[in-house]
Amino acid sequence: MKELEENESEMSSRRNFLKKVGIGVGAVSIAGVAGTSVIAGTKSKSGEKIKLLSPDGTLVEVDKDDIKPAKEIVEELKTEARKGLPNRKFVMVIDLARCKNARKCVEACQEGHLLPKDHEWMKLFLLQDDLSTARYWFPRPCFHCDKPMCVSVCPVGATYKRPDGVVLIDNQRCIGCKFCMTGCPYSARVFNWKDPEVKVPAGHVYNPEDNIPAVEGTVGKCIFCADNLRKNILPRCVTACPMGVIYFGDLLEDTITNSTETVRFSKIMLDRAGYRYREELGTLPSVYYLPPTQRMFPVESGLEGTDESIKGRYKNAGPR
Amino acid sequence: MKKNISFTLLLIFSLITVCSDLYSQDKTLISPYIQLQYFKNTDDQRILKTTLTYSLNRMELPLAGMEITFYSGGDKKEILGTGLTDDKGAVKLELKDDLKIAADDAGMWAFNTEFKGNDTIEAASADISVKDVTLEVTYTEPDSIKTVTVKAYTSGQGKELPASGEPVLVYVPRMFSLLQIGEITLDDNGTGSIEFPGDLPGDKEGNITVITRFEENATFGNVEKQVQLKWGIPTDYSHPTTKRALWTKTAPRWMIYTLTILLSGVWGHYLFAIISLIRIRILAKRREEEDNYGK
Amino acid sequence: MQADNKLIKDLTPEIEKTSLKWYITFFTFLGFFALGIYGLIQQIDKGHIVTGMRDNVVWGFYIVNFIFFMGLSYSGALISGVLHLFNTGWRKPVIRMAELITIISLIIGPFFIFFCIGRLDRLYFLFIHPRIQSPITWDVIAIMTDLVGCFIYLYLSFIEDFAILRDYKGLKVPAWKKKLYKILSLGFNGTEKELKILANARTIMSVMIIAIAIIVYSVLAWIFGVTLQPGWHSTIFGPYFVIAAVFSGTGLLIILMWIFRKVYHLEEYITKRHFVNVGVLLTVIAAFYGYFTFSDYLTKWYGSIKMDSILIDKLFSDYYSLFIFANYIGIILPCIIIAFPRFRTIPNITVAAVIALLALWVNRYIIVIPTLETPFLPIQDTRPDWINYSPTWVEWSLTLAGVSIFVMLFMLVSKIAPIISISEMQEQDKDEILK
């Protein structure tokens, strides 16, 4: 007659506990809790159970096969990170007519990836091609090019392009030669010049899909929130934008969304004459722009109410 | 003396007032927002969903682990069940088919949800009334134009009452959201149809899911019908990029060949030079032996 | 092997005794080197933030020095390699110095790359995870090949001298040095067969040295040339860098000729004729270098491509004095000094070489840094050190350390082997007697 769906709160607290148990037992972590497709159940379970003590003093029994050394987990995560999501090709569309330098995208990105405040993976430019052309705010994530110069020049293969279009960085392979930074024509990469002093949450295992923590002497950039994509969640900048400037989706599905509106990619590109930044460079970016026609807000509104340290950046903004 | 006493009393009184003020500030309760929704999914399963949230700094945050009680019947208030909210602040209750709920005179069911409150959170309750509606969706292709036809009616007094004038939305679920195909406004007969685009990409075989629903309808709640059809364009994304390029793991063949030829050429000559040195050494050794032999 | 007593007497004193002046000079430079090491420790400890490099100008002094030192290695390729093939006689006194410049600068150059690398503890990844498509991998392979080749070539030219020193009874050196000569000379005795094998090997190696030197420097140029950055994406970069390298190598050769001539009193062997000849070489190469530079900047300036124009504007405003010095004064002055017989004195020619060398360093600086300061997307920042590159004391001290170690290594080598090839000089004397 009456039935209750299994409420998820019990499940999540158990999951949290298992996460915490991982730390308490030295270098051993429980597989599968890093929120990826890694599951220990690929091997048949031995059935052997091990008793572990939880932080609040209760005794828990865990299957022995579920316990793996942290190093092995990182290797599995890295392999999955190189493969990417099957049958997807991610694309982003940014509507320049709506952007007014709210910078919520920048803040959400920095929060989500635990970045130091002077690292901006998503960067906002104030551009004007010529004195007679319009000024516009230009949010620039990494373009995840289909012909990525940064990947071509990396000497150790620390950065790679995966079949679903995302270009990632393996911070444990990067030697910090910065060739990729000179290779990228869009200045999309940042370098950790000093110890970023990141407070890593307990039990966190390194995964190129979230790139936490930033490592001194290595390169970082926008990764299309690959950790979110695995959970079918939009990248953080997309949901954070109050104007709905950034659309994101799967090109193969021909659909993009900015978390409130969902439109067909081919339709919006045709209707709004979308384009890519500096198409002639031939890197084939995965980020498209919609021209700043019929602006929702005047450009100057982006300068009001911002910090001096931000406003001062655009002092000399204009045609070069 | 009197002045001193009255002054002391005044001081104590003001202290108590301030303290009680501070004390009562700790005691302000969070005012939550409770929402009750009715769902009827494609298998005709009926579900009540309550979401409990509160707002902080213009952000809406969930309240997890709170006990919610579901009632039916308006004033009569029959308990349907209780549950705890999950980490998104939601709790669902499934109403089984054999559950008989009394409808009121208009044929509506009344549902109520209540959160009794605790030390820090105020109590809250919400109610909705819904009418059971039957949604029939057919998928046809007259003249090769894919069409979704909808018929919706409520059953009352043994008759079918068309749900005329109500909006029905058609969606295709995509990776992050639902893509709206269009909106049908039901005519006087409770029917309507919409053209489905023929150029939507589906999966490898061309399968695509089509959702037709009443969305947050004032009378019917959320009622949907979902089906998987071969109405999509088959999309096979076999490895898109060339196997060997500047940015792939394996280098283009000509690069490897050129490098090998150049390197073997140069190091081969180095080998020749080293062999010359070895020959000199051998010659010198032989001469030494000859000299020693001669002595 | 025997050698003219006079030759040996003149060319070996530095091997036998060490003057006080040598010690003072050596330890002064060691002091500079230590300062550089201190800077390096600061950099490893606090991170690269202590340098002037920031997110746009990610390559600064270190890369400039790397290219510069690699370029110096060309002197060996040219003098020993090219001139060997043409059998020019006058080059004989300077061969040894040229080859030593090559080896020493090849050893020092890669260290500047190491300073630029963010994670030195992962340097070996270059060898276990190499990507053939990356110009840096080409560079690693090329430099290793060049180093080995130059070592072999240098050793081939040392053998005869080691044999002479081994057999010279009057040599007043400690026993360990004598043993060293014995081992290193491989029992060489100057027989006809041995000489033939040696000559053959040297000819082949000299061809290899020329080829590998061109490849190394072209690969270095392509690290810049294959990127899309304005100013770097130039088709001329390969040959341009090669010519500039030969130019710097020749300049350094003249300077070292002058130093060693003065310090070890070798006026008899390194005469004005040598200075004039290498000077003429310098002038010819300067002409080529000027031609390439002019060609590169003319095509950038004439066309209206916006990014090129922005770069040229920057060069002619912020970097005006450096640009004029590197690309005008650095070319024209040496040419004038050497072209007119009136100006052709040994000190003048040395001054011309110093100017040329400095101009080349500045030229590298102008190639690397202004391009990074004018990216496609403008630098919109408030922090001045992120907008314009300004080197810090760490980078200056490490540059000085690089120069110091160069000098020190040279001084150390001069203690073990004669700075002028005795065997070569003997041949030359014989040739002159026979004429």
Task: Summarize the model shown.
The complex is a heterotrimer of chains A (320), B (295) and C (435). Chain A is an alpha+beta fold and 320 residues long.
Explain what this protein looks like in three dimensions.
- The complex is a heterotrimer of chains A (320), B (295) and C (435).
- Chain A has helices at residues 8-24, 70-83, 104-112, 149-153, 179-183, 226-230, 236-240, 265-272, 308-311; strands spanning 2-4, 28-30, 49-53, 59-63, 67-69, 90-95, 123-128, 135-140, 159-161, 167-169, 190-191, 219-220, 246-250, 255-257, 262-264, 287-290.
- With 320 residues, chain A is α+β, with helices and mostly antiparallel strands.
- Chain A folds into 2 domains: 2-68, no CATH class; 92-313, 2-Layer Sandwich (Alpha-Beta Plaits), CATH 3.30.70.
- In chain A, strand 3 and strand 4 (59-63) form a beta hairpin.
- Among the domains of chain B are: 33-131, Sandwich (Immunoglobulin-like); 133-229, Immunoglobulin-like (Sandwich), CATH 2.60.40.10.
- Chain B is flat, with a radius of gyration of 39 Å.
- The termini of chain B are far apart.
- The mean pLDDT of chain C is 87.
- The longest helix of chain C is centred in the middle third of the chain and has 34 residues, at 192-225.
- Chain C has a single domain (5-426), classed as Up-down Bundle (Formate dehydrogenase/DMSO reductase fold).
- Chain A binds chain C through residues 125-127, 140, 149, 152-157, 173-179, 181-183, 185-187, 189-195, 215-219, 278, 281, 283, 309, 312-314, 316-317, 320, and chain C through 46-49, 53-56, 58-59, 116-119, 122-123, 125-126, 129-131, 133-137, 140, 223, 226-229, 232, 306, 310, 372, 375-382.
- Strand 1 of chain A pairs antiparallel with strand 6 of chain B.
